[in-house]
Design brief:
The structure is a homodimer. Chain A is built from 20 helices and 6 strands. By secondary structure, the first copy, chain A, is mainly alpha-helical. The first copy, chain A, starts with 5 loop residues before the first helix and ends with a helix. Chains A and B meet through helix 2, helix 11, helix 12, helix 14 and helix 15 of A and helix 2, helix 11, helix 12, helix 14 and helix 15 of B.
């Protein structure tokens, strides 16, 4: 479609939602995407830009002049989206773009937002909000709101501040509509409200909004002055990203990839954990190599290597992922470290009993070595209990050390448990066959 | 704290958020929780009830009389939450509770909602909404809205319908405030709106609201009549649950468990996938048993069993989880089935080349059997390529068959790849050592 025919393409683009256009552009090369982009008009162009994945956007903005960026995109954007775009530019580009913005108030807002850490509530918030003074009447407020509302798509709450801009409470539009025009705002406000500080983490913001079912949350500085607001759509993205990151960790992928990405990106995201798996495999080969005598003397001992390794790995991943998910869900936790371990010990013991009995029955029926039957069952028992405790402990310790506990799920825990499981299996088998 | 002292406890409860109270109650036994519960008043009691996990709630509602349930909880709830609670009751309890509801309109709304499939948009929506007729003026509308707004916590949009209740568009409160009182609603409405049908899946609702950054979405029946609305807080729960389910699948857990749960629940959630792992292990033992001759004749062949199995498992999980995540994110996909496989083939070939070279180098340096060195490297190469393709194909096929593709992640794909990897390894080793 993307040969030359601007008119046809333009007509088609008008019917599409910005996110769909962004996805189409993601499939094109830079030149084609640029051609497509220049056909878009004002607000739509900026809506599309914000939907393009970050690394693509960076590549794309590099080929556009600062003036065009300022006039065609930034001026149509809310301050939070604009700050995200500007933040990604190179240092001298940043200044050039900020200077080209015609609306100096907007430029100032963006510059303010750039001061905040990207990972904090300040980096997520927008400056556009509706605020009224607590001493105004409903009538004055309605007039002021009409003025302020021009730049804002949707009003969820009206924030109430005092003369020094300290956040005093919120006011729903419903109250404004339903009360007589001469009422004082002071008497209508809801003052038992939820807010976050500018340096709160994205996770804290998401947790607060989810817990209290909020559509927007005000952001205040350390002494309580109103600085901005965060809306639920940004938080939905945070929740989604957080869940995706944990999912990627447990499945051994580094970085945010989708099957539509380029081959090289897909490969690169998979190599690091596989390398750990390879090193684990080599270590496992060393463990078995050190037990060469047992392997050659005990008939059938090698048969159960995959079983022991697989069970150790699966049990470990289960334990660690339950811990990680509990931490991620932000559920308040009444169990102490010790109680958690005791509980996991109970779970491990039951699981171990079930599966070592099963494998004992199987081997009792089909194997002709009673020693091997015992060695496999007892090894499986010990390996399962150990893998449960190990899988629970590591993420809890990482979390205490303020390291992302999700690091301890997936290939890491599998590999560790594989090796440790093999060592125990070999040791126990040798004990049964008196080869030590 | 929960001995007798009602007054002290009551005072403490007043300061707590419903969700915190729900978590405390989760830790208590049924009798203690009931005692605590009866201390709560009206609206707070119903807010707490809705935060209690479903299975706990069922246990708890059983011990309360229908009249109390109707008067103390249901009457304070929005219709969607009320329907969720009533849906969980046993058949005769359901009718008893519905009959005890004083507000017949509310009882009717709840009964209507119970007709919808719990997993559909109809099962998620609430009946409470603000609607105006397109022929009214702003002034009439404001008056009607004040009447309707009594039962509703927050107004996000005003829905506009015609005389037959067909959804014509939406109106933001902002527009109502900013326009002259004699304007006709017809001229103010936004008619390019997003809505869902009553039988849309939760996932479709979540995708639409996320894609278009909506705070609330109207639900219409098959001919377009307005039936209810779904708000973002319910959808955030859907997104969270969906992500958690995929996470549990990949880590081999069935059911929604947290480390705070009871030992038996934790164990039960882990047994099914471990059983599959055990069967896989036994199959693996059979495969190795059938190759007993090769294992005893070829020195060192057993050492690399864990390596081959682990790499096959890890690669398979990576491939399948990328597919599952791409499907779950709802990204529109322009790649055909064939193109996906070709891409995955490329990824698999690069990965295989990297790791078989690495293991070749290692064995070349440390092993004294050139045949074994070749056999391990070539097996690893083939196993990685195969595991990539397998991991990609299975979830894609499941998705085509309308089965949850997440089923094919985690222990399932690991176990399959373990066994197939072992078979290939044995076959290739035998070829190299001429034992076939």
């Amino acid at each position: 479609i993307e040969q030359q025919n601007s008119e046809v393409v333009k007509a088609k683009l008008e019917d599409l939602h910005p996110m769909d256009i962004a996805e189409i552009m993601d499939e094109l090369n830079t030149e084609e995407a640029k051609f497509l982009y220049l056909l878009l008009e004002g607000e739509k162009a900026s809506d599309v830009l914000i939907e393009i994945p970050e690394n693509e956007r960076r590549r794309f903005l590099k080929v556009l002049p600062p003036e065009l960026i300022a006039k065609q995109f930034i001026e149509y954007m809310d301050s939070d989206d604009a700050a995200d775009v500007v933040r990604d530019l190179e240092e001298d580009m940043k200044e050039a773009v900020l200077q080209k913005i015609a609306d100096k108030e907007q430029a100032g807002d963006i510059a303010d937002l750039l001061e905040y850490d990207e990972e904090s509530a300040g980096g997520l918030m927008a400056k556009e909000l509706i605020k009224v003074n607590e001493n105004w009447t409903v009538q004055t407020s309605l007039k002021e709101i009409s003025k302020q509302a021009e730049d804002i798509d949707e009003i969820y709450y009206v924030y109430v501040v005092d003369d020094d801009d300290f956040l005093k409470g919120i006011l729903s539009l419903k109250k404004l509509i339903l009360n007589p025009t001469h009422s004082k705002i002071k008497n209508l406000i809801e003052d038992d409200i939820h807010y976050v500080k500018t340096d709160a983490s994205h996770e804290d913001v998401a947790m607060a909004m989810e817990r209290f079912d909020l559509v927007a949350i005000p952001v205040v500085d350390h002494i309580g002055r109103l600085k901005g607001r965060i809306t639920i759509d940004d938080v939905v993205d945070v929740i989604r990203e957080e869940a995706e990151r944990d999912y990627q960790m447990v499945s051994g992928i580094t970085g945010d990839v989708e099957s539509g990405d380029r081959v090289w990106n897909l490969t690169r995201a998979r190599l690091p954990w596989l390398l750990i798996g390879l090193l684990g495999g080599i270590l496992g080969a060393r463990v078995l190599g050190a037990n060469e005598e047992a392997l050659s003397k005990i008939q059938g001992i090698a048969f159960f290597i995959p079983l022991i390794a697989a069970m150790a790995g699966n049990v470990g991943v289960q334990s660690s992922s339950i811990v990680v998910q509990t931490i991620a869900s932000g559920a308040r936790d009444f169990d102490s470290f010790g109680k958690k371990l005791l509980k996991e010990l109970a779970v491990g013991l039951i699981t171990a009993l079930v599966f070592s009995t099963l494998i004992f029955t199987y081997n009792f029926a089909f194997s002709n070595s009673m020693e091997l039957t015992w060695a496999v069952s007892i090894s499986l028992f010990i390996v399962i209990v150990f893998a449960s405790l190990f899988g629970t402990t590591i993420p809890l310790i990482l979390n205490k050390l303020k390291i992302d506990p999700a690091l301890a799920t997936g290939p890491f825990i599998t590999t560790m448990n594989d090796i440790l499981g093999l060592m125990m299996y070999m040791l126990i088998a040798k004990l049964f066959f008196n080869i030590i």
